C-alpha cells in the first residue's frame, strides 16, 4: 500500500481558510484550500490514501463519494510540485 | 490561473514561482559592488546609477523624519 509523506517540513502559513506552503528548495508558493491544508498537516508522518480519507471524513463529515480519488489526485499534484514524496 | 470553488475535497488553489531580486540585481546600491556571485551571468551592476533630475517625490508621503524621537 503506497504511503505518502512531506518531502520536507516546508513553512506553511494558514490564512483564514487557505494555506500557503513555501517551497524554499524550488522557490515556489502553493496555496491550498482548508481541506488541502489539513491533508498537508497529516503528511508529517507517512499516510496512505485510505487513512487520509478516513481522517478527513471524521473531521469534515463530507458527502463526497469520490473523496479517496480526490485525495489521490491532490497528492499527485503535490508530488508534481515537489512538496510530497512516496514514503520509503 | 483559476481558483476553483469546490470545497468538499482537498485542492491546490494556486501554484506559482517566487521571483525576487538580490544583491546581484540590476541597479547599484550602497552596498558591496563587487559581488562574487554569478547570478546575472557574472555581470555585476551593468547600469550606472541615475544621477539626473527627479520629478516629484516618487509618490511617497514621507516628511523626511524617521524615528519617533521628540523634537
From TrEMBL, chain A:
It comes from Metabacillus endolithicus. It comes from the Bacteria. This is PqqD family protein. Gene3D superfamilies: Coenzyme PQQ synthesis protein D (PqqD). Pfam families: PqqD (PF05402).
Automatic annotation (TrEMBL), chain B:
Residues 24-71 are annotated as: Disordered. Residues 55-71 have a biased composition (Gly residues). This is Uncharacterized protein.
Amino acid at each position: 500500500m503506497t504511503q505518502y509523506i512531506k518531502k520536507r517540513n516546508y513553512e506553511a502559513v494558514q490564512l483564514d481558510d487557505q494555506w500557503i506552503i513555501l517551497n524554499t528548495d524550488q522557490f515556489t508558493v502553493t496555496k491550498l484550500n482548508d481541506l488541502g491544508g489539513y491533508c498537508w498537516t497529516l503528511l508529517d508522518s507517512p499516510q496512505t490514501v485510505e487513512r487520509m480519507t478516513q481522517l478527513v471524513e471524521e473531521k469534515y463529515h463530507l458527502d463526497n463519494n469520490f473523496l479517496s480519488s480526490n485525495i489521490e489526485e491532490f497528492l499527485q499534484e503535490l508530488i508534481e510540485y515537489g512538496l510530497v514524496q512516496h514514503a520509503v | 490561473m483559476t481558483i476553483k470553488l469546490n470545497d468538499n475535497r482537498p485542492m491546490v488553489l494556486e501554484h506559482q514561482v517566487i521571483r525576487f531580486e538580490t544583491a546581484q540585481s540590476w541597479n547599484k546600491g550602497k552596498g558591496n559592488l563587487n559581488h562574487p556571485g554569478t547570478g546575472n551571468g557574472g555581470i555585476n551592476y551593468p547600469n550606472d546609477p541615475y544621477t539626473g533630475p527627479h520629478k516629484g517625490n516618487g509618490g511617497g508621503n514621507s516628511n523626511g523624519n524617521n524615528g519617533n524621537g521628540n523634537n
